[in-house]
Amino acid sequence: MEACSGRPPAGEGQESQLRRGSDGPVPREELTPAGMSQGKQQCHLDRQERNGKKAVVSSPSDFSDPVYKEIAVTNGYINRMSKEELRAKLSEFKLETRGVKDVLKKRLKNYYKKEKLTQQREDGDAGGYYDYICVIDFEATCEEGNPPEFTHEIIEFPIVLLNAHTLEIEDTFQQYVRPEINTQLSDFCISLTGITQEMVDRADTFPQVLRNVVDWMRLKELGTKYKYCILTDGSWDMSKFLNIQCQISRLRYPSFAKKWINIRKSYGNFYKVPRNHTKLTVMLEKLGMSYDGRPHSGLDDSKNIARIAVRMLRDGCELRVNEKMQGDQLTSVSSSSPVEGAPAPQMPHCRN
């Protein structure tokens, strides 16, 4: 947490405070909409001319460029703003004003940085990495206390299709799944998920549901016309539940699900918060939102995870794959790795 200090003297407005500092004044236009626009055109120029010399173009990776010094100085001013001043400035730029103070600071800093670095995209575009994000949050059979010998089987397969450019949910997929080992749902599972015995009794088994998923994704032209990736709330959906289910159903692990974005990791790294602040309801709360729907409904959980992803993208986060399955092992994906979309979905072969 960054403490708020340096309150303005009586009668001094927030604009003046934002421009003060021991490192010297920042021109008023830099933190106004007009200044943002001007900076967008000139951010990589040292000066248009200096003593008759031509301007020097700096690389975005060259952190000696004056633009980065300006960003650093401005970040210091933003750190000293009160929550009310942060909200007022965000409102001036027509940005979201909900969230805890650290989130508001991050939002304003990223907006200013994006404008100064002349990124040629609207706020919220996923950095050109993907056209679509498929948010998946399985529900599985469970018992109270989840004894270690209990085998979890997927009983709900939801997908929320998020357009990474418009930041709108374009479509959803949801099918229930009939378990084959623990065919009778526990009272605890029914109460937790809202999925009844009748729902799963009427449902197809996992192999058929997975075929339906593949057909639906192909219909959306994912992996062919459009670049996409999967996003989950944690590692377990893919590394545990899908992995175990494929073993039960004697299917190879589907290639399109081998890499994904773990939004908990992305959220923690972007907003600089500890791991215990990355639970779904806590992330929503810190971003100034509340859960919409029924908790532990796979589809409703997926929609709320998508809402968090949208807010992060608007705040300047560049969501990208950060976890993968290598064999049967969960591993991390380095942020320096090339960004690739998931392959076109195909029904996996049966295990030998």
Automatic annotation (TrEMBL):
Domain (SAP): residue spans on this chain:
78-112
Its cellular-component GO annotations read: cytoplasm; nucleolus
Signal peptide position in this chain? Answer: none
Principal place of residence: cytoplasm
One Gene Ontology term of the molecular function aspect:
RNA binding
The alphabetized UniProt keywords are: Cytoplasm, Exonuclease, Hydrolase, Magnesium, Metal-binding, Nuclease, Nucleus, Phosphoprotein, RNA-binding, RNA-mediated gene silencing, rRNA processing
User: What is the required cofactor set for this protein?
Assistant: Mg(2+)
The EC designation for this entry is: 3.1.13.1
Query: Pfam families given for it?
Result: RNase_T, SAP
Query: SUPFAM superfamilies in the record, alphabetically?
Result: Ribonuclease H-like
Recorded protein name is 3'-5' exoribonuclease 1
